[in-house]
């Protein structure tokens, strides 16, 4: 994807059009472009939750935040939830409005080192609590009694989101890359950094939950329950928990903001290429889309909580649509584009401009056989799961 962006010097739609004027490949370009435009509004709603919690910890309100029903009462309050969503959205929009170099690069150079340092500090603190060894063992030692094929499918689906695959981001950022930058090295760095942060996240959260829950595995609930209910209860019981809570939610805020910026930049770049508008106008258009769709997602827990799609609330539906349906389709379209329009050799030649491309053999095997197979598995399994045919 990065190579496609650097060859074409375009955002997803323009990149696909560069290689193929019509057909499924061009459709895939639009899907790649629409995905981040649909993700960033609901992502910003969750970002707003993070800002709200950070604000409360800065006010040293750790006991109130940990109280039963705090999270539910917050997200079901349309005024409060909407306010904090808008705060996070404006933070993200302010950075992308400043441009790639003055905004995105400048902010990332500051936030990324701080994010890593905070993650290491909190992970060390968590792992050195009495009783943390049980949590570390639970996290790192496989329990095959809980393993299933759907565990692998879920992990592959998460990989799309975590590595920003098939959502236009890598194509867009690739279009900004100089030809002397090593694409292969950059790709390996992204994978290594992503994996490292994922492991650090586990070491931050799981040992602490084990310590303060007395080894109760049920405390490790998935999704928002873990982040916004279980962890605040731990910070409420922990000596110095308010300071740790501030550090933790600063870290999460930085992580959420960098992801939001990447999603926004992809949408704005697409509008610039396809509409021929100035960056300022494209940011304004993205602002309207973000606020409208974000408000719909935010109100899905309050004023619009009666809206259910396949049994899901609005935010969960958008997450399912983008992550489990559109991303696999976009990824398959990318494979088709490379195999039948661009050619693997053109991609190889682009990468070799700045790299020896030692992973060429693996790349060719994956793009021809492995990727299409597993993309199809993810798509079919996710849809069957929603329809209740199989269980995750």
Overview of this protein structure:
α11 (183-213) crosses α12. The mean pLDDT is 88. The radius of gyration is 21 Å and the shape is globular. The protein is mostly helical and 392 residues long. The chain has helices at residues 2-8, 12-19, 24-58, 62-66, 70-75, 78-97, 100-127, 132-140, 149-163, 169-175, 183-213, 224-237, 241-275, 279-299, 314-342, 344-352, 360-386. The longest helix has 35 residues, at 24-58.
Give the key terms.
single chain; 17 helices; globular; 78% helix; 392 residues; mainly alpha
What's the short story on this structure?
With 392 residues, the chain is mainly alpha-helical.
Unreliably modeled segments: none
Distance between the termini: 29 Å
Radius of gyration: 21 Å
Strand content: under 5%
Strands, total number: 0
Give the number of helices: 17
The SSE order reads HHHHHHHHHHHHHHHHH
Mean of the pLDDT scores? 88
Major sheet characteristics: none
Class from secondary-structure proportions? mainly alpha
3D shape: globular
Helix amount: over 70%
In terms of topology, how is this protein built?
Layout: H1 2-8, H2 12-19, H3 24-58, H4 62-66, H5 70-75, H6 78-97, H7 100-127, H8 132-140, H9 149-163, H10 169-175, H11 183-213, H12 224-237, H13 241-275, H14 279-299, H15 314-342, H16 344-352, H17 360-386
């Amino acid at each position: 994807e990065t190579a496609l962006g650097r060859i074409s010097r375009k955002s997803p739609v323009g990149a696909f059009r560069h290689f193929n004027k019509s057909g499924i490949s061009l459709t895939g370009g639009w899907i790649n472009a629409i995905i981040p435009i649909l993700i960033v509004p609901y992502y910003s709603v969750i970002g707003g939750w993070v800002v709200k919690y950070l604000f409360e910890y800065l006010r040293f309100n750790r006991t109130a935040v940990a109280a039963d029903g705090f999270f539910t009462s917050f997200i079901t309050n349309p005024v409060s939830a909407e306010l904090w969503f808008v705060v996070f959205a404006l933070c993200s929009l302010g950075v992308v409005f400043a441009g790639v170099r003055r905004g995105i690069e400048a902010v990332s150079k500051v936030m990324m080192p701080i994010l890593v340092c905070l993650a290491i500090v909190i992970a060390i603190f968590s792992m050195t609590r009495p009783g943390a060894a049980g949590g570390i063992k639970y996290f790192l030692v496989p329990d095959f009694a809980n393993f299933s094929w759907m565990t692998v499918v879920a992990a592959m689906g998460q990989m799309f989101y975590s590595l920003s695959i098939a959502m236009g981001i890598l194509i867009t950022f690739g279009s900004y890359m100089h030809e002397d930058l090593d694409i292969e090295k950059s790709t390996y760095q992204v994978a290594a950094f992503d994996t490292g942060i994922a492991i650090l996240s586990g070491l931050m959260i799981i040992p602490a939950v084990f310590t303060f829950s007395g080894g109760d595995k049920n405390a490790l609930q998935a999704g928002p329950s873990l982040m916004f209910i279980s962890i605040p209860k731990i910070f409420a019981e922990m000596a110095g928990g308010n300071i740790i809570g501030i550090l933790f939610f600063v870290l999460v805020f930085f992580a959420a903001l960098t992801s939001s910026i990447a999603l926004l930049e992809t949408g704005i770049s697409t509008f610039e290429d396809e509409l021929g508008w100035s960056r300022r106008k494209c940011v304004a258009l993205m602002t309207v889309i973000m606020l409208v769709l974000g408000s719909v997602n935010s109100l899905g827990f309050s004023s619009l909580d009666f809206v259910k799609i396949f049994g899901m609330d609005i935010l969960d539906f958008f997450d399912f649509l983008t992550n489990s349906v559109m991303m696999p389709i976009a990824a398959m379209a990318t494979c088709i584009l490379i195999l039948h329009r661009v050619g693997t050799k053109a991609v190889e030649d682009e990468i070799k401009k700045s790299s020896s491309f030692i992973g060429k053999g693996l790349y060719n095997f994956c793009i021809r056989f492995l990727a299409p197979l597993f993309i199809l598995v993810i798509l079919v399994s996710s849809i069957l799961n929603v329809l209740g045919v199989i269980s995750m």
